[in-house]
Every structure is written in structure tokens, then in C-alpha cells.
Amino acid sequence: MSTSARESKLRPSLSVWQAVGISVALMAPSMAANINPQGTAGLVGRATPLAFLLAAVAVLLIAYVFVRLCQYYRHAGSVYVFAGATLGPRAGAVAGLGLMGTYVFYGLVTSSAAGIFGAAFLDAVGVWNDPPWWAGFAVGAVALALALLLTILPARRATSILLTTEGLTVLLIVVIAVVVLARMLAGNAPGGATFTLDVFKVAPGTDSSTLFLGIVFGLLSFAGFEAAATLGEEAHNPRRDIPRAILGTAVFGGVYFTFVTAVETMAFGTDKAGIQRFVGSSALMGDLGTSYIGAWVGDLITLGASVSAFACCLACVVGASRMLFALVRDLAPGHALASTGRNDTPAAAAAVVTAVIAAIALVCAVLFGAEPFDTFLWSGTIGTLILLVAYVLATIGCIKLIFVDKRMAVPQWQVVIPVLALVMLGYTIYRNVLPYPTEGPARWFPVVAFGWLLLVTVVMVAMPGVARRLASEMSRLDETKETV
Q1: Section 65-78 average pLDDT
Q2: CATH code, domain carrying 14
Q3: Which neighbouring-strand residues pair with 14?
Q4: How many Å apart are CA 80 and CA 71, to the nearest integer?
Q5: Residue 367 CB contacts under 8 Å (≥ 6 apart), including other chains
Q6: Looking at residue 416, what is its pLDDT?
Q7: Are the CB atoms for 267 and 193 separated by under 8 Å?
Q8: Average pLDDT over residues 238-267
């Protein structure tokens, strides 16, 4: 095998558990459980767990799309290939560059979170007392640099670290949730909190339709569950292991978020005062750990959230670098970004992705006066809007591949699954954009998100030669017509 051929391929070396590590880390369940339920509680109150349960159902619908597509295609490009090979190269470029943009913005989200929680932990343990406002940026920069280093190392090491660190943090949260639940059942919980199934009912006086607004925040908690799709060329048995990793992550997330959110809501209280405390908490599980077990648990949760954020940052850099590698490889096989280093990982692509993340942070801080939490919030909103569009394109591609072109032996009634996924995705995009924000930084979020997608679309239309090259490469994709 020639050197050029070898350098344009990724080595199959990952197990299903290492693929799970990428998806779980990018979903960041421990970090999300401490923040995201508060957005839902502000809309639906005590019914927050019900909203997360419904969000889990929606994610399982979307997971079906990725499972089917991964059973047919084995490629590092994820939605770039899923949409491109089914809907055409222009759609593939929009989906692929869109998802890559999401991973880049999420890289800033998670490096910012790692910086915020990391600086708070250093303050709590007395290493860096009363840190200045920029401390989060400093710690976040260290986290981003370390993420680049671990991305360049063989993916086996990186994914093992992801799975271990996030797994320990999630285990700690689950243990705390079980302790909290046990004390509520025993009747000796602080503040008189009690076990109640009212958290799965909409409170009187709340319009049931409002529940679907709360689902939006639940869906954001699952974002990234499909990240294992970028490892299609590195898994030992990709058509089996990658679908298992994606579906397993979605199922785990559904059970985990529903259980933890229910315990959090019951522990804070289901009345108006309890919901206000819930929404105002700085760290949901950290506060509960302090109240139900001891003050030292709060510090552990803060440290765990920082580690979770770093693991998610690493997963973002890993995912974005592989998508950039796959796209450039199809457009310009001899380009430096289309080659792998001595560790058989796309090192050059990873360096470019990391530099872009750092540049976005610098622009936010210098031109818009952003602090670490601002970059967290702004980038999270922009990245999610782009992500939902990529999901839509992949879902339409799935419908065409299976139920229109009939390239897989799948019962036709199953078309209802991706159709329901499209309905959920469309509604989520609608509720994130309308009513359109007219004041503050929020007015720029849709502009940046959809502006990026529009730019990619215009380039693809204006440069048909690029589209033809992509189409030529996609026609050579490794496919299978085996019944699944």
C-alpha cells in the first residue's frame, strides 16, 4: 500500500465501548444534568421530568435515522455522507459543514464550561482564591490545549479517557440521586421533601401545550449523542458497533435524564417556592449533594462537572477534526488536512479546529465584551440551531434511502419513525427562532447559525465543480445491501 493511500485512511482500532465514549462525552450528561433542567422548569414547572421523558422519545426517533444510515455507510463524514450520498453532494456539504460548525461552537461551549467549573473548584479548595473574571478563560484555554493534545494521540487513548472520566462523574451523580431518593422515601429528607409522581403531571393552571416548549431544553441535553457516527472508519465492526453505540447512548440518556431530573425536581419541591429554588440553583446536583450528604460533595460535583466539560470539549475536537479530514480528503486528497500523522489521526485538521475555537472566543471577548458564561450561552445556542438543520437533512436522506430508493430491506411502516422525527425537529427549530429576539446578543444567534449554512449553500451552488468532485467520491463509498 502506498504512503499516500495509507495516510488518507483511518485505522480500524475502536471497540463499541470506545465509540460509546465519544457519544457519551459529547452529550456531557453530568454537565447537562446540573444546568439544562432549569430552562425547562421556568416554562413547565414541576412537569420538567415529563418534558425530559418526551424529549427522550424524540431523540430515540432521531437515533433510528442514524442507526439505519450507519448500517449502510461506513465513513468518517457522518451527516456529510448521510445527506450527500442520498440527497446530493450540495446537501452533504451543507449538512457536514453544518455539523462541523456545531462541533466547533460546542468546543467553545465546553471549554468555557470547563473553565468556569475549574476556576470555581480552584477557588473552593483554596488554590486560587477570589479569581478574576477572566479566570474561566484561562482555565478554559488550558482545557482546549489539552484536548488538542489528546486528539492527536491515538483515538483509543482519547476515547478511553472520555469514557472513564465521564463515567465516574455520572456515577457520582447517580449515587447522589439514589441517596436523595432514599431519604425522601424514608421521610427524613431536608426541607420536608417527599416522593411524588406529580412531577410527571402538568400543574393546574399551566397550559399543556407549554409542555412542548420545555421539550426544547430536553433535546439540547441530548445533543451530540450521534458523535460515534464520525468513527465509522475506526471501529472494528462499524455496521454493528456504531449503531449500537448511538442507540445505546440515546437509551442511556433517556433513562438517566428522566430519573435524575425527577429526583432533582422532587428534592427542591414541586410547589412554586421549590421551583424558584430549582431555577435559581447554581448547580442542581451540587446543591443537593451538599444538603443531603455533606459540603464536600459540592466540591466533588464541581470538579466532576469540570472534568465532564473537558471530556465533551475533547469529543468536539475529535468529531470536528474527523469531519474536516473527510471533507478535504474528498475535495483535495493530497492536501495536508487530508492526511494523518504518525499516530494515524488527523492531526492537522485537529489543529485547525482548535485554532478556530480559540479565535471565536477571542472575538467574543474582545469585540463583544463576553465573559466565560457568555461564550457558553452564545455558542451553545448557535451550535444547536445548526445541529438541528443537519439532523433534518440526515432524516430526509434516511427516508429517501430506505423508503423511496428502497436500498435496505426495512418494513415500510417504519417510515412513520423518521417522519415523526422531522415533525419534532421542525417544531424545535421553530420554537428556537420565533418569536425572533430583537434585543441584545440573542438577535445575532440565528444570523450566525443560518448565515453559516447559507454561505455553504451559496458556495455549493456557485461552484458546481466542487459538487461534482464530491459526487464522484461519494459514488465510491463502501455500501452494503445486506438485510438488517
Answers
A1: 71
A2: 1.20.1740.10
A3: 235
A4: 15
A5: none
A6: 93
A7: yes
A8: 85
